[in-house]
Amino acid sequence: MAFRSRFWALSVCRNPEFGFAALSTSSKPAVKPEVANEAVASEFTNRNPRNLELLAVARKERGWGTVWPSREFWHRLRVIRTQHHIEAFVEHLNGQIVVSASTSEWAIKKHLYRTTNVVACESIGRVLAERCLQAGINFMVYQPTPWEAASDSIKQLQSAMTEGGVVLQEPRRIYQ
Hints:
Blueprint: E1 6-15, E2 19-29, E3 44-45, H1 51-54, E4 75-81, E5 86-92, E6 97-102, H2 106-109, H3 118-135, E7 141-142, H4 146-149, H5 152-163
Parallel strand pairs: 4-7
Antiparallel strand pairs: 1-2, 2-3, 4-5, 5-6
Helix pairs in contact: 3-5
């Protein structure tokens, strides 16, 4: 199958509140296709709700300056440690849980001696990093409390997430 040259036209919406956003792209093939299945739609609308987040132009809620933890994120890592299990999940700005991993899951628990120690936190970090990359989440915010940040198990979880390919800091929002 020979490659055909195509001319792409990109229509852009300028909204002062949200910055630039690609509304649609249109293509006009140089040669008419021989088969009906090879025809390209003349109009394409991007319906991906995460498109603006990936372009770093989506709006972030700032919240009040005195509120902790800060609400300025698209995805936030939360870690909950109980006396029996460790649970880590990624929360979206709208409050929904996108990806999670816990030592209460049998697939993780069967490889652990204890479900609350440093090795368990490191395993949760590895599993959550892999699931985040499969879901397409490469950047997230992690805001541990000072006593959590000093914990060896939380440090191991952070290093496992970083080694897994997830950046624990989101890019700055582009204001234009």
